[in-house]
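[Discussion] Sanity-checking designs against the backbone

I'm trying to build intuition for which residues belong where. Below is a structure token string of 424 positions. I'd appreciate it if someone posts a full sequence so I can compare it with mine line by line.
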């Protein structure tokens, strides 16, 4: 361990606020959609900071951004740390971005020291974590871990009909000289800092959350097919009104799924009506379902009921239910969690164990390597909103914990894999 400061807190905050200028909304939030001009601009800014410290940028077929500090033995499995740069349409300054910037600051602080790490240390910004422009989310980390096929990813389209493939090609054209890594390169371990997106740390007056795991999540796309008709002439008894069928489904789903127990999280968050004209009976409705629960057995049972419930309320319309995401609850590596807790204690930051109610890219990395997450508080637990806020001191604290764990891992030649040791 070094006696020098673990990070430059002022630099970290200044860069985080500078990044928030890209895609800034009138209310002071951030709208920086995946693979958009805004994300391209964010890449340019982050890459510039990384190059100043001697880090080498690269990307892959999935549009993930990698910033590498070369280690002494480049054949060793690297340490990855980061998060994402895309946001919700009315998102905040910290969701995802705080994790990328904290990771960059931690690695830059190592690069400024005299000793070279034993292995490559890589800051990563995953493509399309949010899933707000292209569904489903977490495409970049799923492609990296081999969970989702690139052909399927490239075929997905946004609301304007632009495909992920077209947007990826445009991103890569903006960086014609950037090296491309093989998709799914090795990872020795993965660390991700993130705002909690909930109220528990703030309520407990804790600065650091040692994340035990992530609750399970299922998402569905539901399409209801009816028939158009004149609103003034078509009798109610003759209508195949897709919106009316949706209303019956939504009511039934909320009543039977949304009240299963206190821990269930059921959301219908996106709705499209066609032809969406005031005097035309709707012929088609598509909507999303987001279902979450920490107990996989409860989650599976609830998810299995959705198709039947939609079918029950659809007539005289037709309904199709497609599963987009099926991600069970997971637990993070206990040894990495111990290192995070130790780092918080060493630096006298109050800490607590916490389960993540929101999904993160770390869920997918945990399937291929030891992985862990660090949470920091956000005011009132508010996230995915423009007034999302985290105190500068909490951002710095989380980055300091991340930097200490990074040093424990980056300078060891021991394996991170199960049965191996870390530290030393």
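Best answer:
Here's mine. Compare freely.
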């Amino acid at each position: 361990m070094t006696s020098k400061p673990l990070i430059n807190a002022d630099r970290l905050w200044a860069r985080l606020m500078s990044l928030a200028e890209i895609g800034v909304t009138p209310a002071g939030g951030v709208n920086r959609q995946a693979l958009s001009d805004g994300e391209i601009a964010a890449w340019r800014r982050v890459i510039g900071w990384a190059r100043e410290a001697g880090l080498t940028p690269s990307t892959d077929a999935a549009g993930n951004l990698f910033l590498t500090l070369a280690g002494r033995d480049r054949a060793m499995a690297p340490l990855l740390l980061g998060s994402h740069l895309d946001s919700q349409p009315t998102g905040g300054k910290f969701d995802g971005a705080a994790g990328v910037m904290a990771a960059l600051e931690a690695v830059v602080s190592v690069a400024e020291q005299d000793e070279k790490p034993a292995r490559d240390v890589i800051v990563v910004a995953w493509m399309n974590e949010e899933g707000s422009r292209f569904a489903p989310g977490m495409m970049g980390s799923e492609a990296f871990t081999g969970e989702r096929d690139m052909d399927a990813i490239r075929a997905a389209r946004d609301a304007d009909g632009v495909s992920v493939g077209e947007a990826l090609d445009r991103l890569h054209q903006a960086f014609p000289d950037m090296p491309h890594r093989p998709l799914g390169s090795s990872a020795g371990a993965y660390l991700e800092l993130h705002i909690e997106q909930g109220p528990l740390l703030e309520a407990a007056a804790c600065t650091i959350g040692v994340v035990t795991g992530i609750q399970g999540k299922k998402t569905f796309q539901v399409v209801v097919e009816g028939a158009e008709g004149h609103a003034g002439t078509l009798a109610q008894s003759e209508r195949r009104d897709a919106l009316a069928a949706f209303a019956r489904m939504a009511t039934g789903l909320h009543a039977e799924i949304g009240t299963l127990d206190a821990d269930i999280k059921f959301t219908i968050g996106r709705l499209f009506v066609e032809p969406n004209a005031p005097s035309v009976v709707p012929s088609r409705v598509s909507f999303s379902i987001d279902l979450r629960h920490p107990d996989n057995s409860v989650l599976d049972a609830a998810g299995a009921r959705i198709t039947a419930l939609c079918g029950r309320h659809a007539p005289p319309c037709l309904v199709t239910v497609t599963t987009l995401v099926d991600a069970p609850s997971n637990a993070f590596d206990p040894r990495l969690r111990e290192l995070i807790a130790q780092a918080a204690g060493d630096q006298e930051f109050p800490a607590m164990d916490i389960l993540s109610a929101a999904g993160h890219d770390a869920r997918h990395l945990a399937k291929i390597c030891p992985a862990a997450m660090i949470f920091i508080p956000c005011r009132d637990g508010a996230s995915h909103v423009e007034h999302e806020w985290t105190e500068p001191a909490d951002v710095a604290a989380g980055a300091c914990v991340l930097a200490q764990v990074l040093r424990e891992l980056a300078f060891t030649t021991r394996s991170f894999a199960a049965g191996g040791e870390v530290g030393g």
